[in-house]
Amino acid sequence: MMRRLIAALLLGLALAPAARAACPDDAAIARFAGQILQRQSPTPFAALSPADGRCVQDKLVALFAQPLGDIVGFKLGLTNPAIQQRFGIDHPIRGRIFHATLRASSGAEIEARFGAVPVLEADMLVRISVGGVEAALNDHAALIRHIDQVIPFIELPDLVYAPDHRPSLGDLLAINVGARLGVKGRPITVTPSADFIAALGRMSISLHQDGREVSRAPGAAILGHPLNALAWIARDLAREGRPLREGDIISLGSFSPPQPVVAGQVWTARYEGLDQPQDVVVRFK
Fold it and tell me: What pTM does this model have?
């Protein structure tokens, strides 16, 4: 089965646009992708630079599009300054999210072994309502006019690598910043007002396992304010000639440490301070 999967992945790479950076050859990336899709931890690429990691990511997402569906938006990783310092950078990183990432809604039952190293994080999505986000720079009053929904979200990333491997920045980029699945809550309509902007920064996001709170953070935990994350990714994409467009979904980053998941657990992310308090629930089987 693995040989057939690798052959199919190689065909997908042959049809995919050529990546700009130098990186491992197509056969090696196909094997890497095949193991991830088989929920196995692959052998990391040796001494993978950030540029090469981005190149691997470009090819990986082309291969993942078949089982996971179309790319529907982007996600930020490393939004915490302490984690950025560990990797020697002063900014987040980004990956793509797929149709499968947004398929499940609150109350869904998900297989606990959904990835090689499955974890759970409290997150938040926003939906782009109109393009030109990059022109808003860091002006929150301008940025808020480019989104029409805030969506509570439990992200279900796959950290991929075996626990004894300490990933580099290139390694994280190569695995598409761990993007895999997720569970959506009810969208909250955005009001383009100073009050709504302030509430975004003050709001509380808590994570609970089987009714026990394990973490709590304010909206400001993401780069000082969720809109700062939106501003960063809009500019980063625009520099590469791919500005944000109407309908794009952005996963702004984690409000909790990654949590391992086990069959039988029920996890709840609670969002308070924007609208009526809202819970997003996922059960693992």
Answer: 0.90
